[in-house]
Amino acid sequence: MNKAESERLGSYLEQLGYQATDTAEEADLIMLNSCVVRQSAENRVINKLNALRPLKKAQPDTTLAVTGCLVNSDIDQLKKSFPHVDYFFKPGDYPPWLGKPESAPVLPRYPSPSTFVPIIQGCNNFCSYCIVPYRRGRERSRTISEIAGEVKELMPRGVKEVTLLGQNVDSYGHDLPDKPDLADL
Question: Which CDD domains does the annotation name (predicted)?
Answer without folding.
Answer: Radical_SAM
